[in-house]
Amino acid sequence: MCAKATMEDFEALLKESFEIDTPEEGSVVKGKVIAIEAGQAIIDVGYKMEGRIDLKEFANPGEQPDINVGDEVEVYLDRVENSRGEAQISREKAKREEAWDRLEKAYAAETRVDGAIFGRVKGGFTVDLGGAVAFLPGSQVDVRPVRDAGPLMGLKQPFQILKMDRRRGNIVVSRRAILEESRAEQRAEVIGNLTEGQTVDGVVKNITEYGAFVDLGGVDGLLHVTDMAWRRVNHPSEILAIGETVKVQVIKINKETHRISLGMKQLQEDPWDAVERAYPLGSVHKGRVTNITDYGAFVELEAGVEGLVHVSEMSWTKKNVHPGKIVSTSQEVDVMVLEIDSAKRRVSLGLKQTQRNPWEVFAENNPVGSTIEGEVKNITEFGLFIGLENDIDGMVHLSDLSWDQRGEDAIANYRKGDTVKAAVSEVDVEKERISLSIKALGEDTFTEAVDGVKRGSVITVEVTAIEEGGVEVDYNGAKSFIRRSDLSRDRGDQRPERFQVGDKVDVRVTNIDPKTRRMGLSIKAREIAEEKEAVEQYGSSDSGASLGDILGAALKGDKN
């Protein structure tokens, strides 16, 4: 009975000894360095077990191993015995387990952890967090893109854990979060010391198309391109360079967003204060074309003072031409001040006003009635356009082409490019119109022909053509037409064929139209007038004499 109890006690003690002295695989145990040889440290982990670990596992990134004989270290026991009868141990895994415990506590408490960037991978960098390797995305390295990460490599610095998964072995950290937090504190302090209107010195950190960011000592302010100078600045790089120290004025501070607006031109004298005095209306000045648009061109009169030459004020003659075909950027031009609006900081300029109105010049050099010569530039349904001096045109209306032909017929005699002569009929400077006449240079045969002829006159004409509707006749070179109904008082004699070309006929003038250049002629009207005159002279309505007797007496009286 006693022996049996003693045996059970021995087994229990033996089992307890195994449990205490024999480490469990997959755990972290303490060991002692008993030797260093061949680049390895030999470590006694107890229970007569020894293992080997490469010295590099005891070194931090970029440093030499820090291990000596007699040092106590924690190692990770992979296997109690390997093929060589030694314990398979690892310092890195021990550090990793220790690090994960520490990092999980920091992640839960949202506290910072120290680490060092030691490698570059796709999309970012690797960071040693004292035994655990984390991923640092490229976007989380700094508040702004980092072109050269060399100075950050191997440098021990704080990081913020963004995400971690122990089962998958993933840790994501951020250096940017630390910088932003520190930056926010610094910004708040710097902004608290700034006031709107204050003048400060700053360093240009970055330049964009719309402005420049200026470091005011821990906080950046935006210097917009429109606040750099009173003159037009096409790009900030024209007047600023990265790293340059500049003096700026604090224009506005947004306490909520911590955004600061800066200005440089506010420290300079505003040229607009003297614009009305320096550029009186109607005065002419030299300027430089700075910008060209569809609606006009901007001309700089001095630094900070620009005016607009509207497209309608660019040329007397080029009405529908793009401003870029009249002036070019950087060209020096003479302009006249037309209007100034100081409140809106606008100056209206004129380019054409610096040159004489070509219609005025033409009117002075070519009075009404003078003869000009020019090229046919265009032919329209209502007349010809003739090119004149100084790129202006004059128009010959259809009615001014010929004395003898209808305008529609006369215009067919002209072609583009023909050189013609014409007389100046009218010059309207205000409406920019010049009226010309080609027919004025020729003889007015109609006016000469009808000179002294009045309505009711009896004239002798010559038959020149027989037509179905009447006959064409000529009077001193003026053509007219007698309709069939006007050929005789008697309907039976209203036959054109009873006349022959060359016949001389007496007719009565019923109308003279200078516009159509036609005379209204009638044989019938002449016969009726003669009959009336005979009745009045040789008879009366109650005499009983026949019309034949009266006309016979009248004819006999004429013979006597």
UniProtKB/TrEMBL annotation:
<keyword id="KW-0689">Ribosomal protein</keyword>
<dbReference type="InterPro" id="IPR000110">
    <property type="entry name" value="Ribosomal_bS1"/>
</dbReference>
<feature type="domain" description="S1 motif">
    <location>
        <begin position="369"/>
        <end position="439"/>
    </location>
</feature>
<comment type="function">
    <text>Binds mRNA; thus facilitating recognition of the initiation point. It is needed to translate mRNA with a short Shine-Dalgarno (SD) purine-rich sequence.</text>
</comment>
<feature type="domain" description="S1 motif">
    <location>
        <begin position="456"/>
        <end position="524"/>
    </location>
</feature>
<dbReference type="InterPro" id="IPR003029">
    <property type="entry name" value="S1_domain"/>
</dbReference>
<dbReference type="GO" id="GO:0022627">
    <property type="term" value="C:cytosolic small ribosomal subunit"/>
</dbReference>
<protein>
    <recommendedName>
        <fullName>30S ribosomal protein S1</fullName>
    </recommendedName>
</protein>
<dbReference type="Pfam" id="PF00575">
    <property type="entry name" value="S1"/>
</dbReference>
<feature type="domain" description="S1 motif">
    <location>
        <begin position="110"/>
        <end position="176"/>
    </location>
</feature>
<feature type="domain" description="S1 motif">
    <location>
        <begin position="26"/>
        <end position="92"/>
    </location>
</feature>
<keyword id="KW-0677">Repeat</keyword>
<dbReference type="InterPro" id="IPR050437">
    <property type="entry name" value="Ribos_protein_bS1-like"/>
</dbReference>
<comment type="similarity">
    <text>Belongs to the bacterial ribosomal protein bS1 family.</text>
</comment>
<dbReference type="InterPro" id="IPR012340">
    <property type="entry name" value="NA-bd_OB-fold"/>
</dbReference>
<keyword id="KW-0687">Ribonucleoprotein</keyword>
<dbReference type="GO" id="GO:0006412">
    <property type="term" value="P:translation"/>
</dbReference>
<feature type="domain" description="S1 motif">
    <location>
        <begin position="197"/>
        <end position="265"/>
    </location>
</feature>
<feature type="domain" description="S1 motif">
    <location>
        <begin position="282"/>
        <end position="352"/>
    </location>
</feature>
<dbReference type="GO" id="GO:0003729">
    <property type="term" value="F:mRNA binding"/>
</dbReference>
<dbReference type="InterPro" id="IPR035104">
    <property type="entry name" value="Ribosomal_protein_S1-like"/>
</dbReference>
<keyword id="KW-0694">RNA-binding</keyword>
<dbReference type="GO" id="GO:0003735">
    <property type="term" value="F:structural constituent of ribosome"/>
</dbReference>
